Amino acid sequence: MTAIILALAVVALTVYGVERNHRRQPGPGSRLAGSTNTEDRDLSRVTADVRASAAHAPAARAAHRGEVTPLRSMRPARSA
């Protein structure tokens, strides 16, 4: 019986502490620390890469038109 009362007291104190801490938090929710007005460099880098790739792709396709390249060599494997 004593163990149950002690367990309930621990649970009640834990709930009280969590609720008290929750009420002391400012604002409607958690906010990230730091500023959010930074430039996304990944977006500009990816956009530049896609533009460069699109400008290069037609010339590369025209230069290799009609050529068939094997995926791997057709030579037999060397024996040791």
Percent range of helical residues: 55-70%
Which runs of at least 5 residues are low in confidence (pLDDT < 50)? none
Regarding quaternary structure, how should these chains be classified?
Answer: single chain
Q: Tell me, rounded to a whole number, the average pLDDT.
A: 76
What characterizes the major β-sheet?
none
Instruction: Give the helix tally.
Output: 2
Shape estimate: elongated
Could you characterize the architecture of this molecule?
The chain is mostly helical and about 80 residues long. The protein has one domain (about 1-65). It is about 60% helix and about 0% strand. The chain has 2 helices and no strands. The protein has helices at about 1-25, 40-65. It is elongated. It starts with a helix and ends in a 17-residue tail after the last helix. About 0% of the residues are buried. The model has no long low-confidence stretch (mean pLDDT about 75).
List keywords for this structure.
single chain, 80 residues, mainly alpha, 2 helices, 0% strand
